[in-house]
Amino acid sequence: MNTRQHAFAILALPTVVTIIIPAIILLSSDVFFLDWWFQLPFFLIPVVIIIGLVITSAGLSLLVITNRLIATIGEGTLAPWAPTSKLVIQGVYAYMRNPMIAGVLTILLGEAIMFGSWGIFLWCLFFMTGNHVYFVFSEELGLIDRFGDEYIEYMRNVPRWIPRTSPWSPSPEMDGTIDT
Known about the structure:
The structure is a single chain. The protein is mainly α. It has a single domain (3-179), classed as Four Helix Bundle (Hemerythrin (Met), subunit A), CATH 1.20.120.1630. The protein has seven helices and two strands, in the order H-H-H-H-E-H-H-H-E. A two-stranded antiparallel ribbon has the order 1-2. Mean pLDDT is 86; it is low at 176-180.
């Protein structure tokens, strides 16, 4: 995996989804902060901003962690055009199958709260729905083709979106880095 491919994938995907599109949504709306924000008592507005920042930071942390795992263990990028060559089932991937997208969704939710933007919230829902359809009908089928029974065992034990309460431990034959 080359660093340029990885950087391009990050710029092309999460940057567009979490920065460019939300900025377009905010700049194209009639007001920067939407009506529900102004209905809050003045003293609550900083609290809402802080809550949004905390949620956004949590999502960003998750995105960074998953990208690092994909680059180092998976030896690939987050992009479908330069996928991992090894199945990553360690770290946050032992709790849920799609922590990277969960990180992006968390960032979008935090931004929607921080900016009081129904537009960003709707974008978050649209992005979630689109990814769910993509994972069910395309990506997971491709992962089954690439990694076979190991991925099927992983799917049976690790939920797609809602994290497990404890990490999944694969059978001894699986070491968390299955080669394609």
